[in-house]
Amino acid sequence: MKTIKPDITYHLFDYEELSEEDQRLIDAAKKATYQSYAPYSHFMVGAAAKLANGEIVCGSNQENAAYPSGTCAERTSLFYANSTYPDVVVETIAIAARNKHGVFTPHPTAPCGACRQVMLETQWRNKKPLRTLLYGEEGVIVVDKVEDLLPLCFNASSM
Ligand code: THU
Predict the structure, then answer these.
(1) Superfamily of chain region 11-126+138-158
(2) Beta bridge partners of residue 112, listed in sequence order
(3) Is the entire prediction scored with pTM above 0.85?
(4) How far is residue 11's CA from residue 93's CA, in Å, rounded to a whole number?
């Protein structure tokens, strides 16, 4: 028997310590929360994807009375980016959320498993690490590549 401890890395920043570019992307994700449709969870999530061509593509969670039909902010923005600009690398994605009181969460909101899987495939498609910025009012988590969010991942080579 062998025990493997995955070696994952992430960084903790104060918002003010981030580059202007990263701050701008977080601001876009925060703004996107106001376009969320979340009448069931009352948890409003926004995502902003920065593309290599300079575009920022935003998305928000879109819920549905048939719950599984809804989708998360991250997948909304990435599928939009990948379908609109299929050949353009997605460099960074920022995520922010407001809670049922309408205020931004103190701690970063981490993407769900399904979104991590889509983020991973976006990165593989692009052949370039996809950075993730997770916004919280009390600090920002920066992850340099998706494998750090999804160790022991499923990928096409498993098939
Ligand atoms: N949600 C996201 O949009 N992204 C996340 O990273 C976590 C969860 C959405 C899904 C659902 O609309 C609501 O937040 C509550 O789970």
Answers:
(1) Cytidine Deaminase, domain 2 (3.40.140.10)
(2) none
(3) yes
(4) 15
